Give the backbone structure.
Amino acid sequence: MCCWVSDRQADDGNGKFRTPYDEKCTNADPSANTELCAVDHSKADATSSSHGDDGISLFPIKNEGPIHCHGMAWGNDDMDADARYRGNNLFYISMDDHMYKRGYVRNIPGAPMCGCVEKMPMVERADCTEIKALEFWKFSWNAQNGFYASLDRAEIEFNACRDNDLGRHYDDLKDSGLATDEEHGLL
């Protein structure tokens, strides 16, 4: 999951950053999609985000300012496209869709900008992207080496999860047997 607190790109239809840049670009807000509940500093890497190794910061509802969070999840089947192409999905969410296209930057203080859910701030909800992959395989055979298969290329589509909601996507993973009750409880 990734969470952002600032928008630096004007007139893209997301957030509150507007032109002219020299007058309206200071600490513009992203398009808010969640409420920040808490940051557990013991879960973050003390050398890179919170500069401390313990404590918790609590945020009363509607008191923290606009925050935008977006995540992904994959099941326990390592051959599933969401699992095999999770790095592509992380790049798409963090760098392409949110930083490059929307201009979202800056982490929640005391937390990483992106990380596994258990290392991230506790939020009310997060948007979600899942992968649909179409793979093209090459098959060959010869008398000396036998049968051989190799991935020629993959075409990846990035789609919103059900209701664009990370929690609902994880419900779907659990209901289809791709996540355990214990894993679901950690989310």
About this structure: The longest helix spans residues 86-100. The CA atoms of residues 42 and 53 lie 5 Å apart. The chain has a mean pLDDT of 87.
